[in-house]
Amino acid sequence: MSKVVTYEWLGRQPYRPVWEYQSKLLDQRIAGNIGDRLLFVEHDPTYTLGKGGDENHLLADQAELKTRHAEYVPIDRGGDITYHGPGQLVGYPILHLADYRKDVHWYLRQLEETIIRTIAKFGLTGERNPDYTGVWVGDEKIAAIGVKVSRWVTMHGFALNVTTDLSYFGHIIPCGIFHKGVCSIESLTDGSPSLEDIIKIYLEKFSEVFDCSLQQDEQPPFHNPSQSDPKNLTSEATL
């Protein structure tokens, strides 16, 4: 296990500052100034639309978005429209695929595998759908995945519904898919795990799937003065 990935828990944050932070890390990773990173965050309510997505898949107007305290942000990842919000674990790997495998399809399947193994800890059987990226439980999507790759360095990533308010998905056609639903760990089980607990499980599975070791950033460079300081995951989460 020669590869080392440094992870950081940002706590709850609005979408745009974290997107800017990702972009800076992407440039630094391309330049070779930093190693691989893995960011975890819980976003304020946000609808994001990927490149090539259809704006008509956002069903709410500005007044409805304001009522729901949500914002709409077109971004530079692949995929269509999705929702990020409280109770959802969002992960952003900044990885140089030259150290793993220069294959974007392989990378997407690996991300799916990390989610499949994570939710298995809750007795859930995650599945792939050959027509759509992401992880499904039956006909309902539990995790969305959308990435950007520049010079073989990745950004953006996955969104796993843990205790998410699924009613927010009623204002979009999630990922542009009309005939399937969404679910969460909470909606399918009796439990309501914390995001910190999910992160600890996910780190173990990420390490297995990507054959790497993980270490927590002791002095995280991200700081949003308008937000409270994120919680430390403690050494229990260090692999």
Question: How would you explain this protein's 3D organization?
Answer:
The chain has a single domain, classed as BirA Bifunctional Protein, domain 2 (2-Layer Sandwich). Helix content is 25%, strand content 31%. The chain is built from five helices and twelve strands. The strands form two sheets. Strands 1, 2, 6, 7, 8, 9, 10, 11 and 12 form a nine-stranded mixed β-sheet that branches. Strands 4-3-5 form a three-stranded mixed β-sheet, with no helix packed on it. A hairpin with a 2-residue loop joins strand 8 and strand 9. Helix 3 crosses helix 5. 40% of the residues are buried.
Provide a short characterization of the protein structure:
The chain is an alpha/beta fold. The chain is built from 5 helices and 12 strands. The protein has one domain: BirA Bifunctional Protein, domain 2 (2-Layer Sandwich), CATH 3.30.930.
CATH T-level topology = BirA Bifunctional Protein, domain 2
Strand content: 25-35%
- The helix fraction, in percent, is 25-40%
Rg calculated over all Cα atoms: 17 Å
Distinct helical segment count:
5
First CA to last CA: what distance?
11 Å
Q: Calculate the mean pLDDT score and round it.
A: 88
Helix/strand class: alpha/beta
Number of domains as seen in the coordinates: 1
Report the CATH C-level class.
Alpha Beta
Shape field: globular
The strand count comes to 12
Q: What is the name of the CATH superfamily?
A: Bira Bifunctional Protein, Domain 2
Query: Which blocks of ≥5 consecutive residues have pLDDT under 50?
Result: 234-239
Reported for the largest beta sheet, the result is: 9 strands, mixed
Q: Specify the CATH architecture.
A: 2-Layer Sandwich
Order of H and E elements:
EHEEHEEEHEEEEEHHE
